[in-house]
Design goal:
- Helix 6 packs across helix 9, helix 7 packs across helix 8 and helix 8 (about 200-215) runs antiparallel to helix 9.
- Helix content is about 80%, strand content about 0%.
- The chain is built from 9 helices and no strands.
- By secondary structure, the protein is mainly alpha-helical.
- It has one domain (about 5-20, about 25-55, about 70-245).
Length: about 250
């Protein structure tokens, strides 16, 4: 199994640092605005619903078992955060997909010093919106069956204790595929190529995707994680995944 988990996670950190580069700032503004709007709205609604649901459920617990509330709340919160983190991100990415593709294009040109024969401007990116939406839906359809399987396991006594771990691993896998798809799509590579490349550097990809998955569940930080992840995935593509497909 090739790759390195720590190096994979570091791609997200490096991507966040590159966002400050003058040549990328313009392409960060729109995805960032979309993320703040969507995440802010969904998190506000989700926390209110979760609080009401947990209060009703925990009210039925006998007083002598009240101590388990302090155990259940973190487990439920972590599970829901990991389970919904990708879905919330997917909604934001569908809306901002052309801008994320442009950000990946400009980041690759900045890192490699070579032009990317891709969207060539905002007008072309907007014309590619229908194709981008279809690509995002394909990733969502790939995710849903696995998510349903993990969700079912979450209700099986005994197995449900590992649900947070399973949600995290699934989220890490999908986040790596989700964001690596942007630079690879700019090179007209198929979704099957994306999955092949991620599998070829599984540890680096999971390290990167795991860092992204964790950040999507942290308030405020999740506003900024999408553009950082787009640039980080572009670095991962340039330094590791591109070489996999050429071998």
């Amino acid at each position: 199994m090739k790759g390195n988990v720590a190096r994979g996670a570091d791609y997200l950190v490096r991507g966040a640092k590159l966002l400050r580069h003058p040549s990328l700032r313009l392409f960060v503004i729109v995805p960032l605005a979309v993320n703040i709007l969507i995440f802010g709205t969904l998190i506000g609604l989700g926390l209110g619903y979760l609080s009401d649901l947990m209060d009703r459920w925990l009210s039925g617990i006998p007083q002598w078992l009240a101590f388990i509330k302090w155990i259940i709340w973190p487990l439920v919160g972590l599970t829901i955060g990991l389970a919904t983190g990708y879905l919330f991100t997917a909604v934001a990415l569908i809306i901002a997909s052309p801008f994320n593709a442009l950000l990946a294009e400009k980041a690759e040109e900045l890192v490699t010093g070579k032009p990317v024969d891709s969207l060539e401007g905002l007008g072309a990116a907007l014309l590619a919106v229908p194709r981008g939406i279809l690509r995002e839906l394909a990733k969502l359809l790939y995710y849903v069956p696995m998510a349903v399987f993990v969700l079912l396991l979450s209700f099986v006594p005994g197995l449900n204790v590992v649900a947070p771990v399973l949600w995290f691993l699934l989220g890490a896998w999908m986040m790596s595929i989700q964001f690596v798809d942007y630079p690879m799509d700019n090179h007209q590579l198929s979704f099957a190529d994306v999955k092949e490349a991620v599998r070829a550097r599984r540890l680096s990809s999971m390290g990167f995707g795991g860092a992204v998955a964790l950040c999507t569940g942290i308030p405020v930080i999740n506003f900024f994680v999408v553009p950082a992840a787009v640039v980080g995935a572009t670095l991962l593509w340039c330094e590791e995944l591109g070489a996999c497909l050429s071998q």
